[in-house]
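This section describes the prediction task in plain terms. A model, or a person checking by hand, is given the sequence of a single protein chain and must write out its three-dimensional structure as a string of tokens. No templates, partner chains or ligands are provided. The sample shown here is typical of the held-out split.
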Amino acid sequence: MRQTQLSTLLALVLAACGSDDVTPGDVAPDTASDVTTTEVDGTPDVADATEPDAAPDATQPPDTAIDTADVVVARQNTCTAPASAAVNNASLAAGFCASTWASGLDTPRGLFVTDSGDVLVLERGKGQVTALWDADGDGLSGEGERAKLASAGGLNHGVSVHAGFLYASSSSTVSRWPYAAGTRTDLGAGTVVVRDVPSGGNHSTRTLVFDAAGQLYVSCGSASNVDADSRRSLIRRFDLADVPAGGIAFRDGEVFADGLRNEVGLAFDAQGRLWGVQNGIDNLNRDDMGGDIHEDNPAEILSRFDTPGAFHGYPYCWAEFILPANVGKGPGTQWAHEATMNDGTHSDAWCQNPANVDPPELAMQAHSAPLDLEFYDGNSFPEAYRGDLFITLHGSWNRDQPTGYKVVHVSIDAAGNLSNPEPFFENAGQADNGWPHRPVAIRVGHDGQLFITSDASDAILVVGHSGE
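The expected answer:
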């Protein structure tokens, strides 16, 4: 959208000056220079410059010189909430703002922004999907600007909309309801589309995403900290063209990605590739690495799923974040779990062989608990953010020094290189100053702001930009 706006503005200026048409190239996003990057295949499309129809006469001065660097294209101002709604103690870069867009919810988890601009949230405490909006344009969604859409026993996390249906998940089931964008009334009883998802144990959330072909992806986490195998810890893909009565059994879905301990966050990029963030194991120990190494290991990881059916390590392998210099090989290196490293198969060498284990794209701070990710495609933030990643970190428990409780930014340059996560929206004060927020889901709104659920503060937060 920014390219179109810039091209239109330049065309008007140049037409007035009698100059040849010019199509400017996209602006490359900034990258961090002091971080370790990871190579990512694929390069974003860049607009080609259009040659003028005829070369200008070098002996004659041009009618008017146009410096495209000085052309400013207005972006959407999404800092519109009243000052009273500002998030206390929030740390953000200059030009950004954070406010509480909706409060008084009941354990909000998954988010979806509809074509009409309504924000759908799954309230885990109520087991329902709620629609929220801002009818009066005050930058907030008040109590009179929300409505119950759907409910079913045990709904707890996933919500999505696709091809005329609203989808939501419990720990064992995916259900759907006929739905049109803008609907704000109770949809009644739903229909089961996926059944018998393994339930119980440590991880009960089931994330839902759709690809461009309409296939549904459902993630399922492990039953315990370290299971005996990966039969439950994976992502399955479902073709919903012909759903039988009672739904499709989870075990009948295609194994799209295997060996994922708890892949809560899933998102597709502009090239149609699925990415995910994983929560690593707790209480990690390796006697040959110094014993208790859980404080900074294993890394939470960001993965890109290029090869359907590939294995990603759990429960036999884990990813390094920080190990002693005489032991470690760098963030993201795969190591064998102590419980299986002597079983005759799952050694360090086995785990470090990419033919056995698909390595992560990025290693993140241990125990920060990433729960969602979103590629920014809005029109409010500065152009350097376009195509970049935002990741929610729910926060730690298995660490002496707490970490997480924030949203981080991962910049992606024109060559596809990823920066290490950089703080984007976090507590500006001390860890014990009453910061109540634990980010869960994140989505770009119609105006380019970022909506973020916090299940600890029962709110939907919004991060906007002044547009200047």
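For orientation: The first strand starts at residue 90 and ends at 91.
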